[in-house]
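I hope you will forgive my troubling you with a question about protein structure. Here, with my thanks, is the record as I have it:
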Amino acid sequence: MATRALGSPIADQSIRNPNFFNGRLLTGGDLTREQQARAESDAQLGRAHGPGIATGLEVARVDGSEPGLVRVQRGLAVSATGRVLMLGTDPVVKLVQAAETASTGGSGDFGACGALPGAPYVAGDGLFLLTLAPASFAEGSVPVLALDPVNARCSSDSRVDAVKLRLLRVDDLSIASTDAAAVANLRSRAAWAYLRGAGWLAAHRGLGSAPTPGPVVAGLTDCDVPLALVYMVGQAVVFVDAWAVRRRLAPSAASTPWSAWLGGTNDTLAEARLLQFQGQLADTPALADAPAAGVLAWLPPAGMLPAGTDWRRFLGPLQPAREVTLAPGDAPVVLAEALRADPIELDGTGARRMRVYRLDGGGPLLFVRDLRHVRHAEQVWFDATRGALPGADDVQQAIEQLRATTCRHRVLWPERAPESALAGLKPGDDLVLCFEPGEYRWERPFVIADLGQVHLRGPGATLINGAGECALRIEGCDSADVADLALEGRRPGSGKDKTGLGLLGALTVVDTAQVRIERVQARCADAEGLRAAALVCGLRTEAVGKRAAPQLLVSDCVLTAGADQQGLLVLNPGAAQLLRNRVRGSGKAALQRGIGVGGRSAGLLQIEGNLVRDAVCGIGVGISDSAREEDPALSAERVQIERNQVVLQLRGDEKSLRFGLFVGNADSVLVLGNHVRLPGSAGRQLDVHGLRLHGLYGAQLTVRDNLFDGFVQAVAFQPTDKRGELARLWRVEDNVARGDEKGFFLAVTDFKDELVRRDNHRLERLKEDKA
């Protein structure tokens, strides 16, 4: 191995300039060497700047009657050898040439490459690479000395440094088709290969790994500057893709093994990837209307889509949950940062999700690769004053402060599995869960069991069980607070649920001591026979005496029950307030029961301000499981049914009990200010009562200020036995019935002395009511 001393000249591959001095014999060869030395010096400077296109040289298809034409814009480029190539005009180049003229050259026209290897394009379909290459020729002539023997070439006046265009076939990527999808896919695959997508991805998996080179094209040399890919079928130019191969000037990396990580090549490739995608989208706007994975081979790490694009369809599995508004002034920064990442291969392996921004003011959509690992939360500044978190100077500190608080919220969104919201919770832990807006489609109920205090919120969220009657079940918790949530059970059950409730609701809350349900919308499906409810809450019968009787509040809910189903079912409550709820049918047929309270025992029941429509049975307290009037099961302490509106709907073939209001066993009963209506003539033909009282009653029973419309008998009173020997006061007074029949009150009782009937009246219905 040869060694060199420090300070000694190293002249290998150095430029040798002729030394001129007075008295030296000067020849043409000396001047030629001087020109060559100057050219090599310029080439070294060109190689230092890096190869690429400085200005112009854009290639466009020329549409017209003559096929195979492209226009090349004038411009300036530098080859990999450092040679500066200048095109001084905007020539229209004919890519299809006759075979007999294809090999001519030397004049600078499009044709053979001179000393460069490779043959020119003559005819045939396929994908081709259009390049700009150097060319030179002699021009003019000058007289020579007769004494000096020279050839004709030496007598030329000038040597012209010109350029020429070459077309080289790309064999590996060609197809013979003009189908739009196939052409789009070919163009995308070719760009992926020339933009070195796979090579860059592979290089980034190893430390200091150089990327693999792009495709090898026969005849391509370092003297060529690629201008565009051209796809031709039948002598016609199908597309011209410049940015698949076009690069701006950029120096190479200082270290070859690190060229995939550092250096100007990375910036030029990032720019070319974006511009290639945007160019293909501009040439074929229909690409934005189809899923990208079905047509394209890859996507850049950032790109623009037209404002009206269905970006969810276009991005497919790469789509984010939602788009975000972005100020136009921030868009260049977001775009530049995203372009530094690798492109995304659309083969389904390792693809990262995108983020989608909509430029404020109705601008286009900007999608960028999700770079969630680029910055740690400690690197993101946080405004502690506005966030009311003193001492939190970065996002990580803010998260840790919030994490340490006692109010820990969990969030669920439609794409997330519901069980993930319960991860890490132990029996007795509290849960605060927020459902983000959207439809949550499941094939099983979401069950929350054996926790402490449960708080659920979901404005704009709908929980759907497509395979059963129950979408959400809360069981065995200390308390449940559910508000602003919609639920649907789209397939009714058997009516014999394993929990022991008999019926399940779209929302079911069971064996929970404190229950508060507000502003909930629940719906159950149609079925033959009573098999589901919109909302069920209470205590299982087998748990009576083992668990505390629940305290219930159900208010301001909208409950839609399918045909023959139930709106609201309450079982064994310690106390229940059912306030301002709306219960209605699905519109196909009447629901079986509007509001029902059943089981074995109950404390205070307040049923007030509710609207029940389209029901065979309106509001019932004390309905047994079998719904037989001779078997009222529930025993309540106090029942208050006040200011409710009930509109019944009967077909005439109902076999079950039919009523507007019903109260069974109770120590104290107050039925006040209700309006119960039976439209049409069904009340004259069927045994239907506006209010039915059947069971054991205590010392106080009051029925006052009610309006019964359309019933043959407005009130039926049938106490079954005495409850103790105490004196009792039972009053039915100041009630009004409207209808054509004469009867108002039917009483079957041995306690006439205890019953006071006063100021009850029947009025004839108005003509419009009769109609």
User: Anything to note?
Assistant: Residues 98-114, 625-632, 766-771 have pLDDT under 50 and may be disordered.
